[in-house]
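ok here's DUF1858 domain-containing protein:
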Amino acid sequence: MENRYFSIEESLADISGKYPELIALLVNKGFAQLKDEKKRKELGRGISLKQAVELKGLNLEKLVKLMIKEIETKDDRTDITVIEKNGAGDLRVEGLLPCPVRLPLLERLETATANMSSPVSLELKAASQGLGWLKDKLSAGIEAKDLADIFISAGFDLFFDRNLMEGFRQQGVFKDSTGINELNSVFKDTGVDLLDPVGDYAVLAVVPAVFLINRAELAGRRIPHSWEDILSGEFKESVSLPVSDFDLFNAILLNIYHQYGREGVKKLAVSLLKSQHPSQMIQQGGRKQSGEAAVTIMPYFFTRMAERFPHLEFIWPEDGAIISPIFMLIKEDSLPAVQPLVDFFASEEVAEILAGQGLFPSVLPGIDNGLDREAGFMWPGWDFLRNENPGRIIDKLTKEFNNHLKGVG
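and the structure:
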């Protein structure tokens, strides 16, 4: 059973903080201190799950399986509760939510929709499930009137593919009604303009791709501090890439292409040692296995789990963390009925969850994203996204990347 949720090296406090549904299970397994919030914070942070299980003489593998099952059962229960309650809704919200923040957002959404005058249907799946189900819907030739009222997801391919959302956008279907007309200082100070000049797309936050360095695998090489360093050839077959994280990997391909052309995509393929989920890397990195990647490209969120390992070092790229924006598209014909939902997603409450729990920097002014002033971002810009066809480009780049891995081309 694949564990995409937590690392066994994370503390009990961190794991139970992200997944409160695990508290009862862990208490039942002998960790009675977790029942009390104060003790949970005091005791839980000082011990990892692995250490705690060893102290109790429990079977780690079996407990992890139980924990994953409980998380996924809660995940399913949350979806069923929300969708069944509003299943015949007049207003529809569809898309993906990042895994670290999905449950708290769904719980608050259930409260937010309870008092709305119109019923609401929510189909917001975990980002790990990918957008295939939504692309299939849109590729079936539906008309604008059949679209959901709000779409939310990270990534470029769905929103800028001219055969999908971009085609509807060009028909004037969408309008940004968030009222966000000024950016958070982390974007404003670094010259990254995420405000759509045409007023169609809204951006709520971003998923940054950063570096985690395994110093035990550097073999005398200097620590890379930029994407240019990664592509230099010095890290041939030494990099782990989040290939299975489609939104982020597509953003990496698109930005590398925009910055360095097709030659950059080829060099990126040459650097690949393995495709690995960040949580797997952290578990293996924690055991200091040899033959691991010297550099792992991962969402900023996962660096939080690596802080306890002295041989792992987090680097924010000097030329900017490549970002996969979390977009929101609002159907103009659905306004003003859908505006309360728009206001919810554009609220400080949601921004705090995104920035605080997910480490997804929020665009909302005044939110503390916890980043240094010099932390920059890399993204292709609105002109590129509108003048090119990112959906088609991503398809071509994916094929080229895979061909280079096979030694073709």
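+1. The chain has 18 helices and ten strands.
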